[in-house]
Predict the structure.
Amino acid sequence: MLDKNGIAKRIAQEVQNGFYVNLGIGIPTLVANYVREDIEVEFQSENGVLGMGPFPFEGEEDADLINAGKQTITALPGASFFDSSMSFSMIRGKHIHLTILGAMEVAENGDIANWKIPGKMVKGMGGAMDLVASADNIIVAMMHTNKRGESKILKKCSLPLTGVGCVTKVVTNLAVLEVRNNAFHLLERAPGVSVEEIQKATEGTLVVNGEIPEMYI
Amino acid sequence: MLDKNGIAKRIAQEVQNGFYVNLGIGIPTLVANYVREDIEVEFQSENGVLGMGPFPFEGEEDADLINAGKQTITALPGASFFDSSMSFSMIRGKHIHLTILGAMEVAENGDIANWKIPGKMVKGMGGAMDLVASADNIIVAMMHTNKRGESKILKKCSLPLTGVGCVTKVVTNLAVLEVRNNAFHLLERAPGVSVEEIQKATEGTLVVNGEIPEMYI
Amino acid sequence: MINKTVNNVQEALEGVQNAMTLMLGGFGLSGIPENAISELVKRKVTDLTCISNNAGVDDFGLGLLLQQKQIKKMISSYVGENDEFERQMLSGELEVELTPQGTLAEKCRAAQAGFPAFYTPAGYGTEVAEGKETREFDGKMYVLEPAFKADFAFVKAWKGDAAGNLVFKGTARNFNPNMCGAATITVAEVEELVPVGALDPNNIHIPGVFIQRIFQGENYEKRIEQRTIRQRS
Amino acid sequence: MINKTVNNVQEALEGVQNAMTLMLGGFGLSGIPENAISELVKRKVTDLTCISNNAGVDDFGLGLLLQQKQIKKMISSYVGENDEFERQMLSGELEVELTPQGTLAEKCRAAQAGFPAFYTPAGYGTEVAEGKETREFDGKMYVLEPAFKADFAFVKAWKGDAAGNLVFKGTARNFNPNMCGAATITVAEVEELVPVGALDPNNIHIPGVFIQRIFQGENYEKRIEQRTIRQRS
């Protein structure tokens, strides 16, 4: 079973040379720490920076330089700043190759819900609706089940949707799943996790084809 | 009767303090020479400059600094350069207060034709269609009649239109006309020109109300 | 050069009235028009509709207007940093229209640029698209979103000049440029009002034509919302 | 940092084929991709559809491609500086789609920004709107214009870096930024390729994400079309 850093580490393997990547708040932010150093990658933050670097050293924080999670950041050489309209031109125009974001629920048809729990929590969608509606390659980083042990990998989302039929891959603490043909296709198991355990934790249709390898982390 | 500079001089009186103005090619370009110096005005050229100044001194021409007529220009202090999309955001978004352009024909309903003579000449509309479709205040600078003495101030345009129902005023070598309620309302006569002469040169409906003053040039 | 300077924030906000629709730049607390917000608090204008990506925090930014219950309706993309906000929203005191961030930016830009509406894929198939026109282009579905209509836009820039030209800094740029010229009157406050001619015309982010009033701002706090650092190794 | 540099114009144009649709930046002869145009002439690719505000003059800019009859169709807003162009157009050899200048710019920007189409008032009631969908918003009529689709965009910048970041100069900026990322492959040629980090991230006109290939251009003529001067008094 993976922890949050493990999920981030596994997702980092999906980041390819030459990719522009948008990282959501939470686990996705951690992905930057695990990307191979021998490939060229740039991180975009939708509030208006491309070429985002690590957090600043103490004393070097700048209120005018934050990421989409409002965290202080740095900019790498070759970075650029731009306005919100241009930022979403990059996203909507499919110039960003990979979007990694968290979710409360994912459905087997690729639907995703991550912005609202009616009557309980409404923080808003931020840039998530634009991201999932636009990107061709959307990886969801999440726990396979909620705190009550209920599956978040579903036949159908119960919460208000963020986007429809858009998720391409899900990486959880238990498994790597490809979303295709109205089903979750099991690609990899987390270390020490059996196909049966994954099956049990998955409410949506799970397709298991042949021997399922363990993740290489 | 006015010459081209006279028309420009008269139109310059329409330029008010605080106006952003777009000047078309030809007579309109001359208007800049006659604007009162005690008012604040900025000239926009739709190829991407606001705060356009006079032509450069010899030896100071810059291929990277031209106006919409492809003429070398200068930029005044406070000027800015921008891309074509933003330039037309200014125009379409009604941030430009006054558009002055030439025409081949103007009709009493405010239609204007200035970009094409079928079978003979097709230079294109450039930015004229955007300008006339967007601006609230459009003054046409033109000769009242063509080389064959035929009126260009018409009941209905015969040439392909540049815009519909948009012209607010016409200043010609003979008169100042306001376009309103499907008619040309005669506001002023050019020096030495009689109402009868204007009437004769005008094919469209001309409304003459009371005594018509001579222009003050 | 057309001079847009006003002497202070009081002059800059002349004409702001109850029940108006205001746009306010900034993302989180970065690049927010601090001076204009303070003055709105002082003026006690109420029943405001505020278009702003975020709603500030409890005691800063738009949170100050929420405390005073001056806001009737918020149009935002993310409001999750503010307890008073959540309280007012859940109790029904505050009307909230959540709008995807890119859509919010483009609704501003559409107003600035004279586009009446635009088609965006964001929100299709979600409750955001409910009651809205949708349409297919090239096999993909889009939602028609109208341009915003606002009375005042308040933006904050790093540098500006009397002609209204603006330059923003870092990610404090965000929504500010898109809101310039998107309201009837755009008011820019700047950290530094520089002499005309001091800004390189090639590096101006927003030409002065979009700005009606500009003033030298004061006492910027520029609060950091999430101070994150890494260890020196 | 993702490196976009290619060694020369030959590498930059790899993949350009007959019958492709190309975007070319520039207004008049200002800011045109001179190196790319020369290479297109050398490659003798034909049946091209060229999206460019102007068509050059007889012996410079896109006029060079017209001379060689490489262009099947021009999409432009103004073409009145070119006799060979007029000849080919009137004889029917050349297809011409005249498009209002602001519409042309926005059709590029829409392609860059992922908007399938947009509503503009330009051209309503004229032959430009014939056969197109029109629609009323707030009592005003608009024409629906689709985004461009192009294979290559060739743009010319003043300075650029290996990350593909671009800075333009003066009015040579024009359509260039709007065409970046508006085609499948965007090729930028620059007067000066500067080291990564040399450009102020605050003053970059086009972030490198929109650019696939960048190279140091050569032998810029930068011809002036209408040399106008005033007398020293």
Summary: Residues 9-115+147-216 of chain D form a domain with the Glutaconate Coenzyme A-transferase fold (CATH 3.40.1080.10). Residues 101-113 of chain D form the longest helix (13 residues). Chain D has a mean pLDDT of 97.
